[in-house]
Automatic annotation (TrEMBL):
Keyword terms: Cytoplasm, Exonuclease, Hydrolase, Nuclease
Role of this protein: Bidirectionally degrades single-stranded DNA into large acid-insoluble oligonucleotides, which are then degraded further into small acid-soluble oligonucleotides.
Record protein name field: Exodeoxyribonuclease 7 small subunit
GO molecular function terms attached to this record: exodeoxyribonuclease VII activity
Hydrolase keyword on record: yes
Location (main, coarse): cytoplasm
Domain of life of the source: Bacteria
Length: 78
């Protein structure tokens, strides 16, 4: 498992927030800004995947037979 896969959601978000803050200041040299931007894109991807996996887990319910089924909101429009 790579270091990125071991990174917790909260840690990734904190690092991403720090990168955004640094880049918003505008005093970061171009090369460093590009590196931070690339790292931020990677962190953003980790956060997105983590949230998608959490959503998939939370939308499953167990029926009376012990089988998992996808929970569908009756108010959703298709």
């Amino acid at each position: 498992m790579s270091a990125k896969e071991k990174l917790k959601f909260e840690e990734a978000m904190q690092q991403l927030e720090e990168i955004v803050t640094n880049l918003e200041r505008g005093d970061v040299p171009l090369e460093e800004a590009l590196e931070q931007f690339q790292k931020g894109v990677g962190l953003s991807k980790i956060c997105k995947e983590t949230l998608q996996n959490a959503e998939k887990t939370l939308t499953k319910i167990v029926d009376e037979n012990g089988e998992e089924t996808i929970f569908e909101n009756e108010n959703e429009e298709n």
